[in-house]
Amino acid sequence: MAKDALSLAWLDMRRRRFATAISRLEAKADIYEENFEYYLTMGIACLYVGDIGASSSYFQMARRIKLTDTRLLLGQAAIFLRRGDTARAIQYYLEIKENDPLNKTADAAMEFIRVHGNYDTICRWVDTGKIEQFYPPLGSNPDKIVLITVVSVAFLLGSLVTFIMFPRGKQYAGPRADLTKLELSSEEKSDAKEKDLSTQSYAFVLSNKEINRRYENALKYFQLHRDNAAQIEVNTILNSDASVAVKKKARLLMGYFEIPDFDSITDVPSLTDVAANPALYIDCWVNWGGKISNAVTYEDGSYTCDFLIGDDSLSRYDGTVKVHFNAAPSVDLSRSVKILGKISLEDGLVCLAGRAVYQSIKN
How much is the pLDDT for 143? Predict the structure, then answer.
């Protein structure tokens, strides 16, 4: 049985063939004049190909016919989100929640705005395509379902072969990055300590074996995506009597560490641990909770505050650190927050270079 152009266009879009869907529908424009589903489908297709002007026009035509369709509101909210107009985007998401309280896309988008809603991050998400997770959902890609089925069968067969050929209990994980050039040479391993210790004092005096072990640990933690743990090993080496060659490679390793987010961060030290030995934790990332006070926004847009670290009510208070942001975060200062930041020292005191702020949308 023959399918209409709208049904075929949606199948094209589920297969992520947006240009095909647009061409198919453009050829039927005279038939679908003043048709809500036609305008909505064209708007969504244009949104996914990045033609924001056309997408906005089609959504406006659809809105003249129907105001409260969730797919339409998600599409219009996504356009404002792409532009960095988070205030307008949130208005649309709140309208969606009134009509569809369980809508997961609206929930995820509002959480994103709360946590990462600065213009720089939005631009990066648009550039990488990650912003598409907040577009009107298209449903499962039928081509991908077939591919997954084939891959799953192959994986099961491969797992059976692996189970037979390799001992149980041992994991085989591919490397995160090729760090062969950062491995210590045999000469660097044998001469891992600085020979002349008379010209400088060191926070840590380590044996040759200990330096090698800590460096190997740093490489291992990196491959396990435990950058904070790797950073602590690196900091130990940099503040020790390790040789110049070993310290140079340790600093190069730091260049491979990634900026975490609230979900990916691991091995987070407590403020108590950091205050006891700050040198060990410089450049580590934390996601501490507490409340903001004494916030100041400067003429260049930068922002500083005192961060009172503890639980939501501060019935447990761990201490206070200064936090610096490049731009003022949008938060309610009367409520608790979590701050993602990198540890540094300022006049010998622990402080944070703030990266993001999370504040629950629940009161």
Answer: 55
